[in-house]
Amino acid sequence: MQLTDDLITGTINGISGFIVARYAEQYDIPLDVAMETFFNSNTYKLLSDKETGYYFDSIPEIFDMFLKEI
């Protein structure tokens, strides 16, 4: 499998969706609120910057980083 821009984008989207859903469920908040919080976070900014390579990190580590931020 070759690492393409589309694959990286899909990975970032999948990780983001998982984190938003888990955050909403864990803290019993609406998905739209969880999504807005995550998409406005520095964690998302770093994750979505393809140069950082955060999409290679484990999802639990990224989720913990997000929780520490908020």
Question: What report would you give on this structure?
Answer:
The chain has four helices and no strands. α1 (5-27) crosses α4 (59-69) and α3 (42-48) runs antiparallel to α4. The longest helix has 23 residues, at 5-27. It is mostly helical and 70 residues long. The chain has one domain (5-69).
In short:
The chain is an all-alpha fold and 70 residues long.
On the 0 to 100 scale, the average pLDDT is: 94
Please estimate the helix content.
over 70%
Record field, number of beta strands: 0
Strand content: under 5%
Uncertain spans: none
User: What is the 3D shape?
Assistant: elongated
Largest sheet: none
Topology order in helix (H) and strand (E) letters: HHHH
End-to-end Cα distance? 35 Å
How many structural domains can be distinguished in the coordinates? 1
- Determine the structural class based on helices, strands and strand pairing: mainly alpha
Q: Radius of gyration over alpha carbons?
A: 12 Å
Count of discrete alpha- or pi-helical segments spanning 4 or more residues: 4
List keywords for this structure.
70 residues; mainly alpha; 4 helices
Element layout with pairings:
Elements: H1 5-27, H2 31-39, H3 42-48, H4 59-69
